[in-house]
Amino acid sequence: MKRFTLLFVVPLVLFAFSAYGYQHGKGHGKWLWWKDASIVEEVKLDDKQKTEINEISSTYKPRLEEMRPGVDEKRKAFMEAMANPDSTRDEIMKAYDDMWDTKYKMKKTMIEMKLDIRAVLTPDQITKLNQIREQHKQEMMQKHKKQ
Prior knowledge:
This protein has helices at residues 2-18, 37-43, 47-83, 89-118, 123-146. By secondary structure, it is an all-alpha fold. The protein has a single domain (2-133), classed as Up-down Bundle (Four Helix Bundle (Hemerythrin (Met), subunit A)), CATH 1.20.120. The longest helix has 37 residues, at 47-83.
């Protein structure tokens, strides 16, 4: 069940939430959409909400920054195990599991932050953000289709 969650459910949920980050080319989940004046206006985010969201972001930022090198380190260890002809199947699978466990912990922390932020929003604001995400997704699909 844990593998199913890691391989299917978590990426699906992460995509749904991090897709907001693609708006205006801001990147994967690093987009501070509540600091984008046009989005703030469109979503009708008030000053109290911006303050709360900034506080939430500030709380999680150090934790996420602390986790990131561990994810990179575990990914590198897995790649090295794969490239090493002397690595056993068990060593490679352990490196793979370690990499995904570390990545899962970071992604889970990101989801917790996004859920805390989501709790600050009204249902209408959540709906509006979903519309913005979908619009951008369609624009990106059209852009890539033309290339």
